Input
Amino acid sequence: MLKTAVRLAVVMLLACVFAAIRVVPASGEDGCQVYWYEDPVTHRLVSGVKCPGTPSKTPSPPAAAGGTGACTNPFTGDSIPCTLNGAPWVAAWKCYAQSLPNQPVDAAHVGMTAYECRWAASGASMMGITPIYWARSTPAPVDPAALAQEAVASMQLKAIRIGMVPDQSPGSMGIVGVPAWLWVDAPDPQTFGPATSSASAGGVTVTASARVSKVVWSMGDGKAVTCTSAGSVFLSGDGGKRSPDCGYTYSKQGTYTIRATSTWAITWTATTGATGSLALSFTSTRVLVVGEIQVVTR
Output
């Protein structure tokens, strides 16, 4: 009689718990649903995953988040370990995926591995309710830094187009002592920024932003000019004037190869909370002939 009463109490408790369950669609096309409910004892939100069937028919789990400090509690926003007792945190499922190598395998899941969702910091399941799902492979960690590289590659960043007076028209040349103007010709997101792109995998999305932080102009005579802006375009009426922000004056005649190296400052942020930065450089070149004005006296 006592056992029957205990069983009824457990059933009633579970009924109350599941009555508070809120189910929302999960990412992917596996038919699984992420759910959460408020624990009636601790009043904390508990997250899990329910998949079709018992056990579920999930063909493969979403990839786990990876990297130190890259995983986040979805309810509090606090950083959490990306592994717990060897189980990786799966952001899309909001739980740690613990493999169950000794789980009995039915005919529908031969050759697959069973996993259970764990939430508590101790690694234990919540109130004995442990969703079990099956997968063909272990959840593969997603490296946010690798996704950042992918996002940056999709921006198709490139070297600047050199804008300069003297220009490159036939017969054009520089003059010793006369200021040359340097600028980024027709800057756009690919040559100067700003540019933004995202890449996603395994429930993790990384968004990267890039812009040129400086252009170093190596003038071919052993000297260089560093400009932190795109420079000013030379206009009619500017003859003989110095560029207000990016220019150079040659002191000797000669033929010089000019190299303009643009450095990109890139930052990225992952939905896991991970952040980072990258730097890329590209170089454009042109040749400039510099001569002297000959003064003829009689």
Summary: The first helix runs from residue 2 to 19. DSSP finds two helices and 19 strands in the chain. The helical segments are 2-19, 144-155.
